Amino acid sequence: MIIRKLIQIGYKELIREKAAKDYIEGKITISEASHRAGLTILDMQHFLVDKGFKSDYSIEDLEKELEL
User: Fold this and answer.
1) Cα–Cα distance measured from residue 14 to residue 58, given in angstroms and rounded to the nearest whole number
2) Cα 48 to chain center, whole Å?
3) DSSP state of 68
4) Could you say which DSSP state residue 19 is in?
5) How far is CA 57 from CA 7, 12, 14, 30, 67, in A?
6) Which phi and psi (to 5°) does residue 66 adopt?
7) Does the model's pTM come out above 0.70?
8) DSSP class of residue 54?
9) Residue of 22, 15, 50, 14 whose CA lies nearest to 36
10) Which of 2, 8, 10, 37 is 20 to 30 A from 61 via CA?
11) With contact defined as beta carbons under 8 Å apart, do 28 and 36 qualify?
């Protein structure tokens, strides 16, 4: 029972790592990455930050989007 649980935890982490990698490489969107990882978009963003990811998205980018 314990071994099965550890395998499940490891598998979930592997899926999250793969989704994060694909997102960082620009292969998928943050929405798709969060879906694949089984996380909300906010949780996926936290996961990426915890793994050391830094976005190129700037405050200026956000301001431009808000104007549109």
Assistant:
1) 29
2) 5
3) -
4) H
5) 36, 28, 26, 13, 16
6) -65, -35
7) yes
8) -
9) 15
10) 37
11) yes
Cα-based distances in Å from 7 to 1, 11, 13, 14, 35 = 10, 6, 10, 10, 21
Contacts of 24 (CB under 8 A, 6+ apart): 48, 53
Number of C-alpha atoms within 13 angstroms, CB side, residue 39?
20
pLDDT tens for the chain, 68 residues: list them: 899 989 988 999 999 999 999 999 999 999 999 999 999 999 999 999 998 888 777 778 778 878 87
Q: What DSSP character marks residue 64?
A: H
Nearest to 36 by CA among 53, 12, 52: 12
Length of the chain: 68
